[in-house]
Design goal:
With 434 residues, the chain is α/β, with parallel strands linked by helices. Helix content is 34%, strand content 20%. The protein has 15 helices and 16 strands. Helix 6 runs antiparallel to helix 15 and helix 7 packs across helix 10. The longest helix is centred in the C-terminal third of the chain and has 20 residues. The chain is elongated and about 90 Å long. About 3% of the residues have low confidence. It binds nicotinamide-adenine-dinucleotide.
Length: 434
């Protein structure tokens, strides 16, 4: 396994979390939370460990989520039935946007226009065309927007980036990244709270601009399975992989993408594929092979292999570097020649130096190096980066543009699957080429 959900939270090595001096209560960044579901509770728990911020308000479309937020973070956390009222509250400095994907754009844009800094969960967008709208709105309002693919704030990913930058891998031409699961919960079939009803769920608020439909608790609590609210595996999981790959290899976006998606197994519960494979070609001179299935979890969680001419990095449960020890071996070719020519070939000093003696490769390559994960969790680290950006007014690495490009990779994957064609990126427009 690799970066599983738990791993995301607990064991990924990170940058130091807490600032050295705790600010006074009124110096703390006052944070409002829009969407208080499963991920939001992880974010709020992480934020509560950081002394520079305070959770002061919450808005959610299901009453149980608001109740749990106030149980955990105190009854002084002010509930807002409508997120627009939370955004209008001038005492709030910054917001977490942790709603289903089809809501991200409107909420982020409204928040920055109201002067809030924003942490928006990945994927930044539901459609690629929304990305530059958000980027421009954030720039116009001079607000910090950080997107929530937290792995880029881990020590292991920073170390991997440094190894690649210093040339330790030689020329990287292939990256393989995967995200595999084999459980119903991994396939987003989450339990529905027993008190869910049109009285406790604000169905209209959830739908927003999505197609009108009658109340459906499966759509509300398992929204990733439905195209009206999510791009499935691509927007949920590939986006993490793409953000990380762009960070480690200093890449902007793929010039072209081809993908296939299949729904082999979880057919009763969804519209979106449970198996996806994609090829993303980058102008920097490498190709990325993304793969995900919900039907087997061998090397589960997220895992990366970055393959260079001089060495390879694997990043899953910790980081490892494997040098390439290349030994030329033309024996099987030369043994098909006449004996006299074979003998002559091996009398050549250059050949002897390059090809002899023939050795067995040890199981663990000589010179391999490993770095174990240590430190606080990746979510704490990523939120800490966000709080630092709010204080310094310097954009974090994973700003709106970076988040847009990573989400756009997912949209290109989905478009390629639907259209059964190659999908191209327009680097001038920063959008999918139409
Ligand atoms: N970074 C990560 O590792 C990670 C992990 C899980 C989820 N996420 C992201 O977090 C986001 C939320 O995912 P989740 O798993 O928490 O989903 P969830 O369904 O558990 O939570 C979403 C919440 O949004 C609320 N909501 C919907 N419409 C609303 C509205 N108009 N106003 C206020 N609240 C509204 C819902 O009531 C729900 O409680 C998604 O974008 C997802 O991709 C990121």
């Amino acid at each position: 396994m690799a970066f599983t959900r738990r791993h995301f939270l607990q064991s990924t090595a990170t940058v130091a979390a807490a600032p050295s001096m705790a600010p006074a209560a009124n110096d703390r960044i006052q944070v409002g939370v829009i969407g208080a579901g499963a991920r939001s509770h992880e974010l709020m728990a992480a934020l509560a460990t950081l002394s520079g911020a305070q959770i002061v308000a919450v808005s959610d479309a299901y009453t149980g989520r608001v109740e749990r937020t106030r149980e955990r973070h105190g009854q002084q956390v002010k509930p807002y039935p409508n997120y627009k009222e939370l955004i209008a509250d001038k005492s709030i400095d910054a917001v977490l946007v942790v709603t289903p994907d089809h809501w991200h754009k409107d909420m982020v844009i409204e928040a920055v226009r109201a002067g809030k800094d924003v942490y928006c969960e990945k994927p930044l967008t539901y459609r690629s065309a929304e990305g530059m709208e958000i980027v421009r709105a954030a720039a116009d309002a001079k607000r910090i927007v950080q997107v929530g693919s937290q792995l880029v704030s881990t020590e292991s990913m920073r170390k991997a980036r440094e190894l690649i930058r210093t040339g330790k891998l030689g020329k990287v031409t292939i990256v393989r990244a995967a995200y595999n699961r084999n459980t119903a919960s991994g396939a987003w079939i989450y339990p529905i709270p027993p008190d869910a009803s049109p009285q406790t769920v604000n169905w209209e608020a959830f739908l927003g601009s999505a197609k009108k439909r009658p109340y459906d608790p499966a759509r509300f609590f398992r929204w990733r399975c439905y195209e009206d609210y999510s791009g499935g595996i691509a927007t949920d999981l590939f986006v993490h992989l793409c953000t990380s790959i762009h960070f480690m290899l200093d890449a902007k976006a793929p010039s072209r993408v081809m993908a296939m998606g299949q729904l082999y197994r979880w057919k009763e519960s969804r519209e979106v594929p449970d198996t996806m494979n994609a090829l993303l070609e980058y102008p920097e001179g490498f190709v990325v092979n993304l793969s995900s299935t919900f039907n087997n979890e061998l090397s589960g969680g997220s895992s990366f292999q970055i393959l260079g001419t001089e060495g390879a990095i694997t990043l899953s449960d910790g980081l490892a570097f494997f040098p390439e020890r290349v030994v030329e071996d033309n024996r099987w070719i030369v043994e098909s020649w006449p004996t006299r020519l074979e003998k002559a070939y091996y009398q050549d000093a250059k050949v002897r130096a390059a090809e002899l003696p023939r050795t067995w490769k040890p199981a663990l390559r000589q010179g391999a190096e490993r770095w174990e994960s240590q430190g606080a969790d990746s979510t704490v680290a990523h939120l800490n980066v966000w709080l630092d950006a709010i204080r310094s007014r310097k954009p974090p690495y994973e700003d709106a543009l970076i988040g847009h490009r990573a989400a756009a990779c997912a949209h290109m994957v989905n478009r390629s699957i639907k259209q059964r064609t190659q999908v191209d990126w327009d680097f001038d427009k920063e959008d999918i080429r139409s």
